[in-house]
Design a protein that fits this description.
The complex is a heterodimer of chains A (about 450) and B (about 130). Chain A folds into two domains: about 110 residues, Alpha-Beta Complex (Aspartate Aminotransferase, domain 1), CATH 3.90.1150; about 260 residues, 3-Layer(aba) Sandwich (Aspartate Aminotransferase, domain 2). In chain A, strand 11 and strand 12 form a beta hairpin. Chain A has about 450 residues and is an alpha/beta fold. Chain A is built from twelve helices and 15 strands. Chain A starts with 9 loop residues before the first helix and ends with a helix. Chain B has about 130 residues and is of the alpha+beta class. Chain B has a single domain, classed as RNA polymerase II/Efflux pump adaptor protein, barrel-sandwich hybrid domain (OB fold (Dihydrolipoamide Acetyltransferase, E2P)), CATH 2.40.50. In chain B, the strands form two sheets. In chain B, strands 1-2-3-9-8-5 form a six-stranded antiparallel beta sheet. In chain B, strands 4-6-7 form a three-stranded antiparallel beta sheet. Chains A and B meet through loops of A and loops of B.
């Protein structure tokens, strides 16, 4: 059957099959065991006209609960921060809106310049010397940081706090399996990393100590103490941080981190349904040769005019082949562009304001929600914009009820940690109003009564 | 013709070796640095690391290419030229002097005799270096 999306004609297909000695396309598939094959045509409905298709998809999309339709208290790495309107306007420009990232300096000064500005702003926020052009997401950034620490120190253990995002840890474990790097669990009772235990676990075998601040449970960690402890053992300190908080919180680099990674989704990237996200990665200058990912540098052309090029490409696999120290040649340029426009639009004062409002509203919400009978804060430690609530009823049963009333109440912690089965992780950004928080508290009060 | 000091021994990959008491100093030849062009980065092993004859011990990067460095001898690294981190161009300016890379304590004295003499190395580069 001819298809409008397959370029060759039935005659051409026949000719090609003839060359390789196959009778039909079906003959090419005989090696696939029958039980692995569907055995019937795909159950597709007949093609729809474009208007009908849009109507159909719109109806399907309306069944989703999202940050537009609901008041969102979802977090755990993906947050409902405000997205200024210039972002969408700018990224839709044809020069930027492409699936492929053009890197030729002679054709792509605009793209390269935005990446350079992204790197510069991320380095400044994180308190580091250099940032790369981005990686897929927070999880892959952490995994790459673990591999980098292993290659820098030539050591084979990574000590990871249990308060680091559990999904980031799983991705890191996958990456570490090949090179045989072992992950060691560092306890975090009461929602904060036990640094006394770290003193025992971080040894001459440790490539890096990994903490997250604010951590998965929203609590703040003592980065400076962790840095001192890691460095005393000759290990690196890797800190997972959310850059949108760093208008208020000190850049981890200033507190002694050697590598800072994180999820940059909060910087103007929609939460979508879990991606595409923005993997932030920054390091100290002396580690730059071991840093994964693309890197844009500023230079001058032969007339002395400023320009931008990919730099330190000799780390990368297209040059160094099997010996490359960076094997990730992809970045999420469009999401990095969103973050660049976000940071430029908000500016220094705007970012400080986002941080101040988020933390102030989160603290108001925590206080208000903890007044609901039977509800309490699970951890006593200081938090930033997110906190774990202990509920008197199973969160799984409360969530659908609250969703019906227009609230995405939070992320249940049961699937991440069985001992926290009665807990809900609640995030509050600058977008939440006092009225929304009060209404949420009232709805929760009714739901748990 | 590039400078090939008589008293040194050489590898086919263009490293030189110089006996220095019971130790051996290692670098790359004048011919190698000419071929590479401006050296911008040199990656060396740590002091205490073990190197093996004819095996990779580091990387030299120029504006034109990245090349592996091959050890003339097996042994333990007892000294590295830390100044190359800040001034990699020293390798171009003074390849047999200040541009040295490693000092190795050899573990197999027999390997010295396997290395090319200055005359053999001169013949090699006269044939185009391969």
């Amino acid at each position: 059957m001819p298809s409008r999306y397959i370029a060759n004609t039935p005659d051409e297909q026949k000719q090609m099959l003839g060359v390789i000695g196959a009778g039909s396309v079906e003959d090419l598939l005989v090696k696939i065991p029958p039980k692995a094959r569907l055995g019937r045509p795909l159950g597709l409905t007949p093609a729809l006209a474009e208007t009908d298709l849009i109507r159909h998809m719109t109806a399907l999309a309306a069944r989703n609960a999202n940050a537009e339709s609901h008041v969102s208290f979802l977090g755990a790495g993906s947050y409902d921060h405000y997205i200024p309107s210039p972002i969408n306007h700018m990224i839709l420009r044809g020069e930027f809106f492409t699936a492929y990232t053009p890197y030729q300096p002679e054709a792509s000064q605009g793209t390269l310049r935005t990446i350079y500005e992204y790197q510069t702003m991320i380095a400044e926020l994180t308190g580091m010397d250099v940032a790369n052009a981005s990686i897929y997401d927070g999880a892959s950034s952490l995994a790459e940081a673990a591999l980098m620490a292993h290659s820098v120190t030539e050591r084979k253990e990574i000590v990871l706090s249990r308060a680091v995002h559990p999904l980031y840890k799983r991705v890191t474990a996958t990456y570490c399996e090949g090179p045989g790097v072992r992950l060691r669990d560092l306890p975090a009772p009461d929602g904060v990393t036990d640094l006394a235990a770290a003193r025992q676990l971080v040894t001459a075998k440790t490539a890096a100590l990994v903490i997250q601040t604010p951590n998965f449970y929203g609590c703040l960690e003592d980065v400076a103490a962790a840095a001192e402890l890691a460095h005393a053992a000759g290990a690196l300190l890797v800190v997972v941080a959310d850059p949108v908080n760093l208008g208020v919180l000190e850049g981890p680099g200033k507190l002694g981190a050697d590598i800072v990674v994180g999820e940059g989704q909060g910087l103007g990237v929609p939460a979508s349904f879990g991606g595409p996200n923005l993997g932030v990665f920054a390091a100290k200058t002396e580690l730059v040769r071991r840093m994964p990912g693309r890197l844009v540098g500023a230079t001058v052309d032969r007339d002395g005019k400023r320009g931008f090029v990919l730099t330190l490409q000799t780390r990368e696999q297209h040059i160094r082949r099997a010996k490359a120290t960076s094997n990730i040649c992809t970045n999420v340029a469009l999401c990095a562009l969103m973050a660049t426009i976000y940071m430029a639009t908000l500016g220094r004062r705007g970012l400080v304001k986002v941080g101040e409002l988020s933390t102030a509203k989160a603290h108001y919400a925590a206080e208000r929600l903890a007044k609901v009978p039977g509800v309490s804060l699970r951890f006593p430690a200081p938090f930033f914009k997110e906190f774990a609530l202990k509920l008197p009823k199973a969160p799984d049963r409360l969530l659908p009820r609250l969703a019906k009333q227009g609230f995405l109440a939070g992320v249940p912690l049961k699937s991440f940690d069985r001992s926290l089965a009665d807990c809900l992780l609640v995030a509050v950004t600058e977008k939440r109003t006092k009225a929304e928080i009060d209404a949420f508290a009232a709805a929760l009060e009714k739901a748990v009564a | 013709m590039a400078n090939v000091p008589k008293e040194l021994r050489y590898t086919r990959e263009h490293e030189w070796a110089k006996q220095d008491g019971d130790r051996v100093r290692i670098g790359i030849t004048a011919y190698a640095q000419e071929q590479l062009g401006d050296v911008v980065f040199v990656e060396l092993p740590k002091v205490g690391a073990k190197v093996t004859a004819a095996k990779n011990f580091g990387v030299v990067e120029s504006v034109k290419a990245v090349s592996d460095l091959f050890s003339p001898l097996s042994g333990e690294v007892v000294e590295i030229n830390g100044e190359l981190a800040q001034k990699p161009e020293t390798v171009n300016q003074d390849p047999y002097g200040k541009g040295w890379m490693l000092v190795v304590k050899p573990s197999n004295k027999g390997e010295w005799d396997q290395l090319l003499t200055a005359q053999q190395y001169e013949e090699l580069i006269a044939q185009g270096g391969h």
